[in-house]
Amino acid sequence: MIIKGREFKEFIKKSNYFNNKKRIILFFLLTTNITVSAQDKVYSKIKDSTITLLNEYVKTKQQDIPKKAFLLAEQTKADTLLKNTYINFGMKSFFAKDLPILTLSEKKLKQFYLRTKDTAALAKHLYFKGLYYKLQFKPDSSFYYYNESKNLSVKLKDSLEAARRLLSMAALQYDERDYLGSESSIIEGLRFVEPNIKSKDFKEPLGKVFFTGLLYERLGNVLYLTDRQEEARKNYLKFFKIQSKTPGLVIKYEKARLYNHLGNTYELEGDYEKAIEYLKKSLAIDSLKFKSLYRYEAALGSLSYNNLILGNNQLALKGYLEVLESRKKRNYKRGLVITHSNLAEFYDVNNNTKKAIYHAKKGLEVAKSISYNRYTLENLVRLSKIIKGEKGRLFLEEHYILNDSLFKRERFLKNQFAKVRYETEKKEAENIYLKEENIRKELEVETERQHKTIGWLITSFCIMLMVFGVSIVFNRRKKMLFNAKLKQVEVREKERKQIAKSLHDEVAGDIRMLHLKLSKSSQLEEAKSLDIIKENVRNLSHQLSSESFNDVSFKDQVINLVSDFFEIKFRVLIEKIDDINWKTIDNSIKRILFLSIRESIQNTKKHSEATKVIVSFSERKKSLILKIKDNGKGFDVNEKKSGIGLKNMKERVEEINGAFTIDSILDEGTETVIEILKNGN
Questions:
Q1: Do 672 and 627 meet the contact criterion of CB atoms below 8 Å apart?
Q2: Beta-bridge partners for 661
Q3: pLDDT tens digit sequence for 221-257
């Protein structure tokens, strides 16, 4: 029983059962219920208003309508209503080719995501960006955002949205004649939805069933254009089977769609009688002309073409003219291009040059206005053949220029589409690798721990104590020797630093003074030679000077070194330098590594004719490993005895018990590997 406000007051006055506390609680519950009910009414009213505004926008295309709807929805602060409103107006603005509203919807979804962290809203935002670039005729950018949106849907395990994005990607690739890429996208899309479709009874959501059918139809179109007609027909039949079990679709009009597809496949195979048979079946479907005019026009146009091929000129002309009038009435430009082009072919075949030229020019004009390049090329060729002289030659020249431009664009877009897919697959592979690597490391740690535990239990305490004592003595002695060698390196570096300082401050300074005196005494040649000597001394002092790894980190020193060698045709790549904790590594070791890198890059640039050098770091439990590899011409390691640089590198490394190896293969490159103990044991 529901007690209204006035009845409640009477009830409180008359009742002696309730005490004051119970009265307050009941009154609070009642007023709360009234407030919630009022809020629901406001929400419902605003929701209905946004739907009304959406319908009004579809009819009028007025840009102030979506803004009003957004303001209304934002008043409710109801996230579901907000998100749906942004999405609904975004989709309608795309179909209306209303770029400002599409952009506004996309930005609203981005703001919504930043506030709510709703990843599904972010996926829609990316999809709308793709739609925006599609309307801007930038298929590469559109494809990129479709793919990013798809990736998010995959992470959300939203298989329907992932399949829808893949269908959009496949359509873009299809339009740009990347048929192999389109086929790949379709098959990937089917993997998301097809396993859930049961052959006898569909229990999946309507969206999945419907888009599964569209994917099969698109696959049939790709197979049709790549001359695999038998496979195309199988996929068209799968499409129809799915559509026939999809609620809400009028099956007879879907059957017309199937007949049109089948007729087209037989037409391309040259079986014109069979094609006409299916096209007539399509046209015979009740009310097709009035309820599905698009399919009626397509069937009649194809039937007219097949009649023309078989010599039934009157039937062909009658059909073409009916289709032309129908498409003129609804201003269907893409269809008008096709019909004008077909009529141009018809009149050309029947030697009516004047009408052939008229329709070819009309087809060319409309094709250019909507960038329907296939028929632009076709009409340019036809006009170049029909029209003689200079005008005909100009049409042919325009055809060559456009065809070449389209070929380059098609190749570029195929590469862009492939690049986007490759980058995505690469990221996925890297993520899988990282997961596997983490598991492997965890297993290694666990295995090592178990081995240590087993060894501890098996080995007797006395033997372990002896081994432990000997080990301490041995390692301490080894560590002392290692530190002594490092100390020698440090002393030698101080000597080098002093020599470098003397060269720079004293020798170079004296040469500079002598250079000035020679210049003033007009002994220019001698001054020039002395200037070269001065620069050589300066360079030598810089090479002798030690790098300070206290002021500038080892990583930054290496990056600065690499930047000094940067050239467009000579690249140096640094890998895994961040995997090492350089703060724990002695400066003398870092200097040896740094000098080895510098010497190797200098040798490579000077002698190997390489274009790329890869410097990579790794570490084992007790040692650092440096690998330097180039793609140069290589050399015979056994025969190459000269070279003080390589000798110095080897001596520096071996001086602190490091290992130095160099391997080179002619015409393949050279690899230098240096391994140095981190602490001498």
A1: yes
A2: 673
A3: 999 989 999 999 999 999 999 888 777 778 888 899 9
d(CA 505, CA 499): 10
User: Does the pLDDT value for residue 471 go beyond 80?
Assistant: no
Least confident of 2-11, 326-335, 430-439, 609-618: 2-11
In the structure, what pLDDT confidence band is assigned to residue 516 with cuts at 50, 70 and 90? low
Across 84-108, b (16+ Cβ under 10 Å) vs e yields ebbbbbbbbbbebebeebbebbbeb
Q: What angle do CA 238, 242, 246 make, to 5 degrees?
A: 165
CB atoms within 10 A of CB 646: 19
pTM of the model: 0.55
Amino acid at 139: P
pLDDT at 371 over 90: no
The helix (H) or strand (E) run that includes residue 90 is: helix 79-95
Pairwise pLDDT comparison (272 vs 3), residue with the higher score: 272
DSSP string computed for 48-87: HHHHHHHHHHHHH--THHHHHHHHHHHHHT-HHHHHHHHH
Q: Residues with Cβ < 8 Å from 530, sequence gap 6 or more?
A: 511, 514, 515, 518
| β-pairing verdict for 571-575 and 612-619 | parallel
State the SS3 of 584-619.
Answer: HCCHHHHHHHHHHHHHHHHHHHHHHCCCEEEEEEEE
**Which has the minimum average pLDDT: 122-126, 267-271, 317-321, 436-440?**
436-440
Query: CB count, 10 Å around CB of 446?
Result: 10
Residue 302's identity, in one-letter code, is S
| pLDDT band with cut points at 50, 70 and 90 for residue 486 | low
State CA 159 to chain mean position distance: 19
Q: Distance (Å, rounded) from C-alpha 589 to C-alpha 320?
A: 84
Q: What pLDDT score was predicted for residue 198?
A: 47
Backbone angles phi, psi at 586, to 5 degrees: -60, 145
Pairing of strands 623-630, 612-619: antiparallel
Instruction: Kindly list the structural domains of the chain, giving each domain's residue range(s) and its CATH number in brackets, ordered by start.
Output: 1-117 (no CATH), 250-331 (1.25.40.10), 350-408 (no CATH), 550-681 (3.30.565.10)
